[in-house]
Design brief:
The complex is a heterodimer of chains A (about 100) and B (about 300).
Chain A (H helix, E strand, L loop, with lengths): L1 H19 L4 H20 L4 H31 L1 H16 L1
Chain B lengths: L10 H28 L13 E5 L7 E4 H20 L10 H21 L7 H16 L12 H20 L3 H6 L9 H45 L15 H32 L2 H23 L1
Antiparallel strand pairs in B: 1-2
Helix pairs in contact in B: 1-2, 2-4, 4-8, 5-7, 5-8, 7-8
The chains are: A mainly alpha (about 100), B mainly alpha (about 300).
């Protein structure tokens, strides 16, 4: 019984980490659009290249944040959550007995 | 030719220089030594947070823990202090030494950055911005010498973010505490809970942005290093002598470290400082300040007129 519960818990942690990384889609699209717009701007005004590039990198790094939230959740779910949850599970089983 | 007693070239000057360089280097060496003494031996994938050096019991809310990230950031603070003292040692009216040129370049660049982004009204914030940018950059870079990067711990970046949040709130209150509270009910009172959430999302997002970038870079580096070791073991393991050396681990991790540790760390330091500047200067914009000054002037005039009449 405990083994089954542990297996379900570990599997769902992995599935949850996978779902959390869907958050990477948004910033991917957003940064792609930002870079496309920056390329267009540089093509129109090549003399403003350094300004456009620094602004774009800055904006990209900020747009990345939402993706990083997902990544943090994923990493926590894989490396941290199983330890915590298995402890909780063991305590619950011990309390039931 | 008579040398100034404390001028450059004299023995006292050189002794002080040695002291500053020691102050720069010794804290980092102490951090490394602590790490070597405390780190348990491990084989294989090793992804762990900061080690806990010491737990002090008996505090009201929870035990006080002294972690690796705290100790490392203290070491980096000391080391940066040593660097600043070294760079500003023996300043002259006309820059002659290399270190004075470097110091002047840093100060000038920081001043320009702050006055370009925050306006002249906030030019005294350059000390805070430069300090937080330097601390953040050197914290992220400290993983190059093998230390645990303090920015890879959410507690450290959350501390900085709370500091920035306090600064932003204080700046907003410059326009009057009632005005600040009234700002929560705009544009209509129904928005108050949402305004509260957006207010408190600032420190959370700043802390997680910096921590997430550094930590995820470290995790990805470790994962790729381990994968390459396994790959070289399974591909070349059968060859007698070469099989024991993880040959595929050469090269790629260094390039990744260049991106994740150096570029990403410096970028995040810059972004943290940039967001601090934008939030602080946006908290109490120029127009609001001018309007407030005008209102005060009108009130003062009216009071003077009442006194006269």
């Amino acid at each position: 019984m405990v083994e089954l519960a542990m297996g379900i818990m570990l599997g769902l942690c992995g599935v949850g980490a996978g779902i959390a990384l869907i958050a990477g889609i948004g910033p991917g699209i957003g940064e792609g659009q930002a870079v496309a717009a920056a390329c267009e701007a540089i093509g129109r005004q090549p003399e403003a290249k350094s300004d456009v590039t620094s602004t774009m990198v800055m904006g990209c790094a900020i747009a990345e944040t939402t993706g990083l939230y997902g990544l943090i959740i994923g990493i926590l779910l894989i490396f941290v959550a199983p330890g915590i949850y298995s402890g909780v599970l063991r305590d619950t089983v011990a309390a039931l007995k | 030719m008579t040398e100034n007693k404390n001028g450059p070239g004299s023995a006292a000057f050189r002794r002080a220089d040695m002291g500053y360089i020691a102050l720069m280097v010794i804290p980092l060496i102490c951090c490394l030594a602590l790490k070597v003494l405390f780190k348990p031996e491990s084989v294989g994938v090793d992804i762990s947070g900061a080690m806990i050096f010491l737990t002090v019991k008996g505090f009201p809310l929870q035990d006080l823990v002294i972690t690796e990230s705290q100790v490392n950031s203290w070491g980096i603070i000391l080391s940066l202090t040593g660097l600043c003292l070294y760079l500003t040692h023996g300043l002259m009216e006309k820059a002659e030494t290399k270190r004075q040129l470097a110091a002047e370049w840093i100060v000038e660049k920081c001043g320009n950055l702050v006055s370009a982004n925050m306006g002249e009204r906030y030019s005294e914030y350059v000390y805070f911005i430069a300090a937080i940018m330097g601390l953040s950059a050197f914290s992220s870079l400290s993983c190059l010498i093998g230390l645990f990067a303090p920015t890879g711990d959410v507690n450290v970046t959350a501390g900085w973010a709370i500091l920035v949040f306090a600064l932003v709130t204080w700046t907003k209150m410059q326009g009057g505490v009632l005005n600040y509270l009234k700002g929560f009910t705009e544009p209509i009172p129904v928005f108050t809970p949402m305004n509260f959430i957006s207010e408190f999302s600032l420190p959370v997002s700043m802390a997680f942005r910096h921590y997430g970038n550094v930590m995820s870079g470290a995790v990805i580096s470790v994962l790729i290093g381990t994968a390459l070791r396994g790959l070289s073991k399974s591909l070349l393991g059968a060859i007698p002598v070469i099989g024991n050396i993880p040959l595929l681990q050469v090269g790629l991790p260094a390039i990744l470290s260049l991106y994740f540790d150096v570029f990403s760390g410096l970028m995040q330091a810059f972004i943290f400082a940039m967001l601090t500047m934008l939030n602080v200067s946006g908290a109490f914009p120029q127009e609001a300040w001018e309007k407030r000054q005008a209102k005060k002037a009108v009130r003062r005039q009216r009071a003077a007129a009442a006194k006269a009449g």
